[in-house]
Amino acid sequence: MASRTPRLLLTTLGNRAAGLLALLATTLLSGCSSVFFFPDKVTYITPDRLNLDYEDVYLDTADGETLHGWWLPAQHPDGKARGTVYFLHGNAQNISSHILNVAWLPAEGYNVFTLDYRGYGKSTGAPDIEGALHDAEIGLRWLSEHPQVRDDRVFILGQSLGGALGIPLASEWVKRSEEPQLAGVVVDGTFTGFRGIAREKLGSVWLTWLLQAPLSWTITDEYEAIDRIDTISPVPVMVIHSVRDGIIPFHHGKDLYAAAEEPKEFLQTDTPHASTFVIPAYKKSFLEFLAKSKN
User: Fold this and answer.
1) Given this model, what pLDDT does residue 219 score?
2) Better-predicted residue by pLDDT, 116 or 216
3) Is the CB of residue 154 less than 8 Å from the CB of residue 87?
4) Average pLDDT, stretch 13-25?
5) Considering the chain, what is the average pLDDT of its residues?
6) Residues β-bridged to residue 85
7) Among 70, 102, 166, 234, which is most exposed with the fewest C-beta within 10 angstroms?
8) Minimal CA–CA distance to 187: which of 166, 216, 204?
9) What are the backbone dihedrals phi and psi of residue 203, each rounded to the nearest 5 degrees, phi first?
10) pLDDT at 215 over 60
């Protein structure tokens, strides 16, 4: 999770500190979960620039928003997909800046579907926690009705914020025995919960240290990943986290893994935040997890 604040056009350190504190307190005390979301509307790259076939997908939400996503069909030589990966991206920019994390999967025989939460990219609206969770579910429901997916093995891959959305989504999907049944859930560089990471980040800054408890309580704890990950079982879970993650500390991955029930795997990596798949060995471990996880 990135941390950004508007530039404060004040002349003294004391005024800047006071202004920052006022901004932070106003935002959090209003219960505004938008502190987790940093979308933009820039198109950084499209799949065709990566020699990928793709389809633009537009989905309507019950509350009047329109979500945009990309469907990337598998390009395996035998013509049959090995499965489908539903990719939930991190909190900054949009799908066009995150697509390289999964652009390699069609050549490995996997369909990929990814969408922008409300307020990101070509999706309308403004992001918040419950809205993003709703959007993630809409994407999975679209996949469940896709003719190439109905009898397929479906995996959720969530990076950073995407993992924090993917865990409660998977928990509810498994609990309701929705079809298609999930074949596996992978979270990469994910924090243990919205309230938990808010408190941790507030506690790491001297200016807000004393306010970490009251301010973090304005963030909902209804969807904390640490409280939901155990209910995904018997669906296999893989937790990926880097010892060099400078955004989400390593202990978050270890704590999520400890809270998960079997079957589960932990992949310790050594890359910057959300950079796992630049390393071939980590790609291989991920593919091995997909290959052995079955509906």
Assistant:
1) 74
2) 116
3) no
4) 48
5) 85
6) 112, 155
7) 234
8) 166
9) -75, -15
10) no
CA distance 12 to 265: 50
Place of tokens 């893989």: 238
Gap between the Cα atoms of 29 and 218, Å rounded: 6
- DSSP secondary structure string for all residues of 143-193: HHH-TTTTTS-EEEEEETHHHHHHHHHHHHHHHTT-SSPEEEEEEES--S-
Write the single-letter amino acid at 137: E
Query: What are residue 185's phi and psi, to 5 degrees?
Result: -130, 130
In sequence order, the 6+-apart residues with CB closer than 8 A to the CB of 229 are 167, 171, 237, 256, 259, 260
Kindly indicate the confidence band of residue 34, based on its pLDDT and cuts at 50, 70 and 90.
low
